[in-house]
Structures are given as C-alpha cells and as structure tokens.
Design brief:
single chain; 279 residues; mainly alpha; MetI-like fold; 2 domains; 12 helices
C-alpha cells in the first residue's frame, strides 16, 4: 500500500473515532442540557415546545426554590459535611495506603482483602446496623453521625495504595537515611509525588459525598441540618412532580462540582495515569 493511501486510511480512522466520541459526549450531555433549559421554563412549557430552548424565559423556578425551602442553609450544610468528610477520607486513606504499600506485617493480605470486600457490599446493607450504632452513641441528628461512618473509604485506600506502589523504594530509603521518620517520609515523598492522584481522588470523593442522599436523610431529622440532595424531593406531590423548581435545584447543585472540576480537570485526568489502573 502506498504511503499516501496509508495516510488517508489513518485520517479516516481518526476522524471516525472523533465522530463517535462526539456523538457519545452529546448523548451524555442531553439530560444535563434538558435540566438546565427546564429550570428556566414555565410549568406548562416543560414537555411542550422545544426540548432545549424555553419558549418563555422564566426565573420562577429559582424564586420558588429560595422561597419554599431553606436552600442557602442546606447548601452550607452540604458544603461543611462534604469538605470535612472528604478531608477525613483522604487522611485515613493516605495512612492506610502507605502502610499497605510499605509495611510487611502479619495479616496484611487478608486485611487488604477485607478492604476490597467493603467495595463489593452495597451500602444499603450496612445502613441499619450502622444507624443502630450511631443511635447508641447519641449522634443521630448531628453532622458527626453523618460523617464518622463514612470516613474509611475502601476505594480511596485501594486507589492510593496502587499509586504508592509506583513510587520507587529508593526514594523512601533515601529519605530515611536523611533522618526522616515514617510520617515525614510519607508526606515528603509519597504524598508529594501523588498530588495528581490525590486531586483526582478528592474530586471523586467530594462528588460522592455531595450527592449522598439516603444516609443524611436517615440520620438528620432536623430540617435545618438536612443536606441539599434532600431538596429534590421537596417539590414532589402525591402523584406529581414539580419539574421546574426541581430542575432549578439540580442546576444549582451541580455548579460547585462543575466549578471544582473545571479548575482541577488537568490533574483529574493526570491522576489516573499514576495509579497503575491504566486501561
């Protein structure tokens, strides 16, 4: 085959790949675009007219959100819980992953297998016994009751262990020769060389914590303590759903996550190239 024909074939394949990716990306964005457009529609216009363009631009949905529910308070509650919970998960995961990656101790493999098993168990299975423990500790209807049971993340420990295994042992040995103890070695060598992984993991954990619905709903009884995902059910009547304010809540809820991702997207992508989980 001639070189010119090879170049034409490669160009066709590359164009086909890009076209398929663009179609998939657009299909993924359709629900988000519809959500955003619906938040500016009138109730009569939700399922009528254009799918993405409201025939009559209206802010009534957003006005109803701030009027009917304590949105600002719930937004702050979600922020406090998500930030503290994400920070705690990262701290525990760093320590546990460093131990699994660098220490040889009896029962290490069975213990790590147990950590992996926590990723395979649906969280709903553990909700009732966890709630009973939280209730006995007197932490029902508190932020601590929401945060404490979620601090140990098997996924975070696994991902960071994979990242720490890629760090050359010689760097840790050099740090020990220079007088660093284990905590200093962990911070100055392993953590600093895994910043991109930590950023990517932190974003994933934050999104999961921000979107958590069932556990905060179960633990937090006081309306002033509830989190933002609970707002989605506030506009549901017995046989109907008020789409406009619900989509307004959804739009406002994704703005912090979208902003964080736009700031950290480069490190988010780079993070997975350092974890040993390459496709």
């Amino acid at each position: 085959m001639k070189p010119k024909q090879l170049k034409l074939k490669d160009y066709f394949l590359e164009t086909s790949r890009h076209t398929i990716l663009l179609v998939i990306a657009f299909a993924t964005l359709i629900p988000i675009l519809w959500m955003f457009a619906t938040s500016f529609k009138t109730p009569a216009d939700v399922f009528a007219g254009s799918l993405f363009l409201p025939s009559e631009f209206s802010l009534d949905g957003y006005i109803q959100v701030f009027r009917d529910i304590p949105f600002s308070q719930w937004f702050m509650n979600s922020t406090v819980i998500s930030v503290i919970q994400t920070g705690g998960q990262l701290l525990i995961a760093i320590c546990a992953a460093y131990a699994f990656a660098n220490f040889n101790f009896r029962g290490r493999e069975p213990l790590f297998f147990f950590v992996l098993m926590t990723m395979m168990i649906p969280p709903q299975v553990a909700m009732v016994p966890t709630y009973m423990i939280i209730n006995e500790m007197g932490l029902v209807n508190t932020f601590a009751g929401v945060i404490l049971p979620q601090l140990a993340s098997g996924y975070a420990i696994f991902l960071l262990r994979q990242a720490f295994l890629t760090v050359p042992k010689d760097l840790g040995d050099a740090a020990a020769i220079d007088g660093c103890n284990q905590l200093q070695t962990m911070w100055h060598v392993y953590v600093r060389l895994s910043v991109t992984v930590l950023v990517a993991l932190g974003l994933i954990l934050f999104v999961n914590n921000w979107n958590d619905y069932h556990w905060p709903l179960l633990v937090l009884k006081d309306k002033d303590l509830q989190t933002l995902p609970i707002a989605f059910v506030q506009f549901r009547e017995e046989n109907d759903l008020d789409w406009v304010p619900t989509m307004a809540v959804a739009t406002l809820s994704i703005l912090p996550i979208l902003a964080i991702y736009l700031v950290a997207q480069r490190k988010f992508v780079e993070g997975f190239t350092h974890t040993g989980l390459k496709g």
